[in-house]
Structure prediction request, 245 residues.
Amino acid sequence: MSRRDAAGRAAVAGLGAWAVFAVVGVVAAGGGGAPLPVDRGLLSWSLGHRPEVALAVARGLTATGTGAVPYALVVLAGVLLGRTSRLRALAAGLGVVCLAVGQMARYGLMELAARPRPPRLDWATAASGWSFPSGHTTTSALTAGLLIAATLLRGPRGRTALCVVAGCWGALVGLTRVYLGVHWFTDVIGGWLYAAGWLAVCRYAAVRWLPSDVLDGLSGAGATAGEPPGGAERSYSGRRARPPA
Prediction:
């Protein structure tokens, strides 16, 4: 696939995700931010299913969706993706920028929507700010997306399992926000859609503007397992191995 085609696909994916996000945002924030039937139903369910063990697990899991943990995971994704020290540092830095700018933009959207949270009496953990889109959900989804992208590009053994674990973690962090009563379900949906759109925008920017040698180094283009990035297998003397007669 050419860079132009890859950038075009990323642009379409990003615009699609954000178009749906805009619709959800208008519906969720309209009417003073009143909860939808699905919001009320899931909050009611969570209030009736809160044993202490489940609450403790949910609080522990939701805590990983903010603060230093997501940034540490993004740096790990960069280290996993890069094949040289320079590329590892570059990939980690780009991942941190993607996450940080995505978080800041989400904050602006949250202030614009100004949707109230569920009633404070229903909260089972601390929270602050407006409700839509969910910050923990957005942060964990962005982090999971970067981890999955790095895993798929690097292609380590067990990559399918690693992608499933990262995806489940990102999804569960969002769901804990509903379970703990600090967000409506549509806030979480909004966080997932916003994150999907932002990841697509970052992919578009990377494909469009990163130098070809950097992009090839991060994507592994031209290199195969056990083969030097230059292409054909070489002998220990540094010369190209002579093909068999």
Observations:
- The chain is about 70% helix and 0% strand.
- The chain has one domain: 3-27+52-219.
